[in-house]
């Protein structure tokens, strides 16, 4: 989706002026891109009409930079389609907050229970209880038990011979006794929606009176994702959606359609199998990502989460005081390397996603090793005070690291620019949105 949309838009960008015909052609391309990405047909129709009307209404053809205006309209309408604001988890005024999962088999319910429980534990010091109510696959209980064990979160289970309704009742009683503040009910799924499953889920809903019913949808199932969502929602009236496996979904159709079709907000997205691979769903960021503008904020959040917090704080302080040095730089490089494949990270930087320069840039882990080699050739004094690095010292670094002098120079220049940018960022040049995130 991203690629096609970008093509449609970059066609416009090259033009100084946009004619009626250009606009029609662009809208046609966008329409095709959306349909190809499995966005629901009705949703596409409405979307195109809205964008076209807005584009026509704003005198776009005479505008200063018409292409940018259209991109802005598309961006805003995509965002609107996905719900505009991030919607937090419901919270009950009195404990516990009960969260019930629903979704097809393999959608990611159990994994998401683990991810959410861990998030609440880490962020709010919550004390959740996980109820294992999927009795149909013996392995399902073990799976939840293992997650709970690894994260030190208690799991309530009664084996596979007890009716799930009874398990939920007793699980809730246990949560009341232990004063757990959150209860997650991990339910069974089927390969397809069937009545027996729906009856069971409806009964569990009646018993548990959940504050939140999270429908877990596999983003890779495309059009089926929307049908599944409708099916579950009609029967259960869910309160929110978790879209999983977004890491494997290159088309993005499900993210775009689900809100429009069901009216239910996507609250979280799963972006991998690890327990930390869960993110709050921000419609505006998703839209930027689809449009290939990158997803800087998610990147920053990812970095924050993966950073050792104390270290990050120290570095932040140093950036503020502008004393960030090569030792800190190495620290950061190590952390970046721990964050995962570099390509994934680079893709989230605005303008990088489809930037041909990226391909020539060879962001291969070797580059990081070269940078490290240069820094390790510095004396401690040089690392702390990069201003010492005069030409003769730089030649020494080149010899010591086995890298050419130009590369040493380039690296130092990049470091200086980064340092300048950081201290700028840290000292109030950030947008209020970013500042919020840093606090
Ligand atoms: P359930 O049947 O709905 O409980 O699904 P599970 O939680 O057992 O997940 C099914 C499979 O999908 C497991 O192998 C998970 O590791 C995997 N999975 C779940 N969420 C994600 C995600 O966001 N990304 C990826 N790549 N895999 C996921
Ligand atoms: Mg499961």
From TrEMBL:
Sequence ranges assigned to domain SRP54-type proteins GTP-binding in this UniProt record: 96-292
Function: Involved in targeting and insertion of nascent membrane proteins into the cytoplasmic membrane. Binds to the hydrophobic signal sequence of the ribosome-nascent chain (RNC) as it emerges from the ribosomes. The SRP-RNC complex is then targeted to the cytoplasmic membrane where it interacts with the SRP receptor FtsY.
Name of the protein in its database record: Signal recognition particle protein
Keyword GTP-binding: yes
Signal peptide extent: none
Enzyme's top EC category: hydrolase
GO cellular component, as recorded: signal recognition particle
Keywords per UniProt: Cytoplasm, GTP-binding, Hydrolase, Nucleotide-binding, Ribonucleoprotein, RNA-binding, Signal recognition particle
Pfam families membership: SRP54 (PF00448), SRP54_N (PF02881), SRP_SPB (PF02978)
Main location: cytoplasm
Subunit structure as annotated in this protein's UniProt entry: Part of the signal recognition particle protein translocation system, which is composed of SRP and FtsY.
InterPro entries found in the cross-reference section: AAA+_ATPase (IPR003593), P-loop_NTPase (IPR027417), Signal_recog_part_SRP54_M_sf (IPR036891), Signal_recog_particl_SRP54_hlx (IPR013822), Signal_recog_particle_SRP54_M (IPR004125), SRP (IPR004780), SRP54 (IPR022941), SRP54_GTPase_dom (IPR000897)
Originating organism: Periweissella fabalis
Localization annotation: Cytoplasm
Gene3D superfamilies per the UniProt record, alphabetical: P-loop containing nucleotide triphosphate hydrolases, Signal recognition particle SRP54, nucleotide-binding domain, Signal recognition particle, SRP54 subunit, M-domain
Catalytic activity: GTP + H2O = GDP + phosphate + H(+)
EC number: 3.6.5.4
NCBIfam families: ffh
Domain comment in the entry: Composed of three domains: the N-terminal N domain, which is responsible for interactions with the ribosome, the central G domain, which binds GTP, and the C-terminal M domain, which binds the RNA and the signal sequence of the RNC.
GO MF term set: 7S RNA binding; GTP binding; GTPase activity
Name of the gene: ffh
Positions with a binding annotation for GTP: 103-110, 186-190, 244-247
Family affiliation: Belongs to the GTP-binding SRP family. SRP54 subfamily.
GO BP, sorted A to Z: SRP-dependent cotranslational protein targeting to membrane
Domain AAA+ ATPase as annotated: residue spans: 95-243
Residues annotated as domain Signal recognition particle SRP54 helical bundle: 1-82
């Amino acid at each position: 989706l991203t690629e096609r949309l970008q093509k449609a838009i970059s066609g416009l960008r090259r033009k100084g002026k946009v004619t009626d015909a250009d606009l029609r052609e662009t809208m046609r391309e966008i329409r095709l891109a959306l349909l190809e990405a499995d966005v629901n047909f009705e949703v596409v129709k409405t979307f195109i009409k809205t964008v076209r009307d807005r584009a026509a209404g704003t005198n776009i053809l005479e505008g200063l930079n018409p292409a940018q205006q259209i991109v802005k309209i598309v961006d805003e309408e995509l965002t609107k389609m996905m719900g505009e604001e991030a919607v937090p988890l419901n919270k009950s005024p009195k404990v516990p907050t009960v969260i019930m999962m629903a979704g097809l088999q393999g959608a990611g319910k159990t994994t998401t229970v683990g991810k959410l429980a861990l998030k609440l534990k880490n962020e709010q010091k919550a004390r959740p209880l996980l109820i294992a109510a999927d009795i149909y696959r013996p392995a399902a209980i073990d799976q939840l038990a293992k997650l709970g064990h690894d994260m030190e979160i208690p799991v309530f289970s009664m084996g596979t011979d007890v009716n799930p309704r009874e398990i939920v009742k007793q699980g809730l009683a246990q949560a009341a006794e232990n004063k757990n503040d959150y209860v997650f009910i991990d339910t069974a799924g089927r390969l397809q929606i069937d009545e027996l499953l729906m009856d069971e889920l409806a009964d569990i809903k009646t018993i548990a009176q959940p504050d939140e019913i999270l429908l877990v949808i596999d983003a890779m199932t495309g059009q089926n994702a929307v049908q599944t969502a409708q099916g579950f929602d009609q029967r259960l009236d869910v309160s929110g959606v978790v879209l999983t496996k977004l890491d494997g979904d290159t088309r993005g159709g499900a993210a775009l359609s689900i809100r429009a079709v069901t009216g239910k907000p996507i609250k979280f997205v799963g972006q991998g199998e690890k327990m930390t691979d869960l993110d709050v769903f921000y419609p505006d960021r998703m839209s930027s990502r689809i449009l290939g503008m990158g997803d800087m904020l998610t990147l920053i959040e990812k970095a924050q989460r993966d950073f050792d917090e104390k270290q990050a704080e120290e570095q932040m302080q140093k950036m503020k005081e502008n004393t960030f040095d090569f030792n800190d730089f190495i620290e950061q490089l190590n952390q970046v390397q721990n964050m995962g494949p570099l390509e994934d990270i680079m893709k989230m930087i605005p303008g990088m996603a489809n930037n041909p320069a990226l391909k020539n840039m060879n962001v291969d882990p070797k580059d990081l090793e070269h940078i490290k080699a240069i820094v390790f050739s510095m004396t401690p004094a040089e690392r702390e005070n990069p201003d010492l690095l005069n030409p003769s010292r730089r030649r020494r670094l080149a010899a010591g690291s086995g890298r050419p002098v130009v590369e040493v120079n380039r690296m130092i220049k990049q470091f200086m620019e980064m340092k300048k940018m950081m201290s700028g960022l840290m000292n109030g040049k950030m947008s209020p949105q970013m500042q919020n995130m840093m606090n």
